[in-house]
Amino acid sequence: MSKLNATDVQGFVLRGYNMPHARFCFLHFQNAAAGRHLVAQLLGSITTGQLWDNGKPQSTLNIAFTFKGLTALELPLATLISFPDEFQQGMKDRASILGDIGKNSPEHWDALWRGADIHAWVAIHALTPETLEAQFAQLNAIISATGNIHLLGSQDAAALVIDGKLSTKEHFGYTDGFGNPDYLGVCRNTQPGQGKLLPDGTWAPLATGELLLGYADEAGELPVAPVPHILAANGTFMVYRKLHENVGTFRAFLDEWGARYGAGDAAAKEKLASKFIGRWQDGTPIELSPDAPDPSIVADPNRNTDFKFGNDLSGSRCPVGAHVRRVHPRDAFGFNGKLVDRRRITRRGMPYGPQVDPTTPQDPATLDSTDRGVVFMALNASLSRQFEFVQQQWISYGNDAHLGNEKDLLLGTHLPGEKFSIQGDTNPANPPLFCANLPNFVELRGGDYFFLPSITALAMIAMELVDPR
Amino acid sequence: MPNQNGRVFGLTFLCPILDDETLQISHDLQIRDYLATLPTDERSPFALAPGTHVARLVVMDDVIYVGMPAHEEHLASKYLVFETNTDADLPGYLRTLFDAIPQHIDAVWSHCTGYPGTADFDKLLAYMKACQIPTTFFFAAVNDKSVTETLLALQTQRAVAEFITTHQGMAPAQLQREFLEFYQALQSLPCPAAGGKLPRRVIKTGGHNE
Predict the structure, then answer these.
(1) ipTM exceeding the 0.85 mark
(2) Of A147, A381, B54, B112, which has the fewest Cβ atoms less than 10 A away?
(3) Phi/psi zone of residue A315: left (φ > 0), alpha (ψ -120 to 50 degrees), beta?
(4) Where are the beta strands (DSSP E) in A66-195?
(5) Is A220 among the domain residues?
(6) What is the Cα–Cα distance from A450 to A88, expressed in whole angstroms?
(7) Three-state DSSP class for B15?
């Protein structure tokens, strides 16, 4: 079994910090020396995967680099060209593969992502706004003292507050953040439904190499990684996507089709919303509880991700094209779920933008135009095999699920003439529904692929010790 | 029985490519160059040749030595590999190609050893028979349906899905009336054109989902 040196892995990789405030800073290095100096200055402050025996810190700090960033840091050419193609290309050049077309294409992204090259992502997570600002002030001081580092921009994100309590909801109203995979050696209580399905129906952690470079993956191979090995080991690749949410469009669509679903009342609308995602808005998996939300399931980590689709191939409980079923089909494709074990990603998303005020009605156009959504971040050992496959084949296409060209309702980039099928329910009052005239609920506003190195690798970069020989 | 599975035929040919050191651009590169420009949509030569489920043309330069403990071997020449799944056997399908796309056959196979041209069908058939190898296992994309049946089935599927999205929830009597009208209209639709429906995939797409 893989044994991890958690103090060498950036903490962001091994655990969701579950802190309510975050700021993602995007840097440009004027020259390699400045970049290396900055990494050296930050090195002692980078949060590692070491257990928090004394409770959570007030804030955390993590760093990752684009391929252009590693080039700007003047890593050896033999190292640079050993990175996987898709990382070298970056997310903009992968737009056609990712379905980032139309309004989602790079020429429509925020100015930050269309300007000077982004070289590094520095993430601060914090327990309070004050500790966030304090950590940011420290970062700024180091950037200023270093010189020749440009802070191109930053993105704030924060957990939504519902009824005075911090939540894991996003702006459409769904509860997010269930179902990250377990990995061998990663110290976390394993949950049923979180790793890979075994022939006896139980769940086991995925191979470490599905998340971290330098370890065996589910094929028993080392993931494709740059040389030297020590630069790659304990590192991973991160996808960063700023996903704008058109809340007004979503609500209008739900109103329109909810009125045509089942009894057409508020309960039918709520049920339809659950069919889009595969979970009730409180997070209850509809596969387990198709007729009503069940808070006792949501609250129980041994139940809230412990479900399969093998006995629901017709989609009568959870639609075949529902979001959670698309991105983690479990045993839906047969073979005891073996077909999905190499397509899993770890997500670290957070909402951004002002929370929709439920007490003040707003028109759909204003709801849409307000800058709010989800900062989607995903970690995986292979961007092409894991994230890109899920995005291309399961979000933007439906063939594996026998849905032809249908896409994920909320995340797909819809073209005229597309539809979204909801199979007939266990309740005969809910016959099949085919939603048409699909708007685009989510728009990509920027993003890129990043390499999140180990602590050792960061030190080697800072000390100019990366030697591919 | 090789070359046939139900009503669908799988045909495979290995055609040696001419070797001419005096040429500036070798015959195999000329084939590659021609194939790279062929459209993949309804203008594809194989969309114009009725009864083609799939067709693939590959230039095989040599077998690759992968290192020890593999035995190092080489082909006697470069080969054009032609694989196709069709609704007809070799004489029938070749007649289709001969009638529908002779200019493409000439453009590709004129770079191959012993190619007799498209002037005489019997000579062409004898040549292709000589190059054919038995096909015992091939890609089964369809459930023993002809290309025409498959294209019509896909058209029906799309039309029915469209009908459902626009008619769901309608009162039964009206729904039945409109369905009968729809059914009549569907019956009279011509078979859609064959060929790829997706945008052309450029060579430099790069990356892969292994």
Answers:
(1) no
(2) A147
(3) left
(4) 120-126, 149-158, 161-162, 165-166
(5) yes
(6) 10
(7) strand
* Residue A206 and residue A220 in one domain: yes
User: Which H or E run contains B4?
Assistant: strand B4-5
Residue with tokens 């809230």: A304
Tell whether A468 is covered by a domain.
Answer: no
Determine contact: B161 vs chain A, CB below 8 A.
Answer: yes
pTM of the model: 0.91
If one counts the domains in chain A, the total is: 2
A399 and A301 fall within a common domain: yes
User: Under an 8 A CB cutoff, do A385 and B210 touch?
Assistant: yes
**Are the Cβ atoms of A419 and B161 closer than 8 angstroms?**
yes
Q: Are B205 and A392 inside 8 Å of each other by CB?
A: no
Any chain B CB within 8 A of the CB of A433? yes
A97 contact B CB<8A = yes
Contact A94 B207 (CB under 8 A): yes
Task: Tell me whether residue A79 is in a domain.
Answer: yes
Q: Are residues A336 and A273 in the same domain?
A: yes
By Cβ distance, the residue of A89, A388, A419 closest to B165 is: A419
Looking at the structure, do residues A255 and A224 belong to the same domain, yes or no?
A: no
Range of the structural domain that residue A152 is part of: 6-160+172-241+450-462
**Cross-chain residue pair A433–B205, CB shorter than 8 Å:** no
The distance of A59 to chain B (nearest Cα, Å) reads 37
Longest dimension (CA), chain A: 69
Tell whether A290 is covered by a domain. yes
Show Cβ contacts of residue A51 under 8 Å, excluding neighbours closer than 6 positions: A6, A187
Judgement on whether residues A457 and A325 belong to the same structural domain of the protein: no
Asked if A419 reaches chain B (Cβ–Cβ under 8 Å), the answer is yes
Decide if A401 contacts A332 (C-beta within 8 A): yes
**β A149-158/B8-16 pair status:** unpaired
Residues A328 and A212 in one domain: no
Polymer length of chain B? 210
Q: Fill in the amino acid letter for B54.
A: V
Q: pLDDT tens digits for chain A (469 residues)? A: 557 899 999 999 999 999 999 999 999 999 999 999 999 999 999 999 998 988 999 999 999 999 999 999 999 999 999 999 999 999 999 998 999 999 999 999 999 999 999 999 999 999 999 999 999 999 999 999 999 999 999 999 999 999 899 999 999 999 988 878 999 988 666 788 989 999 999 999 999 999 999 999 999 999 999 999 999 999 999 999 999 999 999 999 999 999 999 899 999 999 999 999 999 999 999 999 999 999 999 999 999 999 999 999 999 999 999 999 999 999 999 998 999 999 999 999 999 999 998 778 889 999 999 999 999 999 999 999 999 999 999 999 998 999 988 999 999 999 998 999 999 987 878 889 999 999 999 999 999 999 999 999 999 999 999 999 8
Same domain flag for A193 and A74: yes
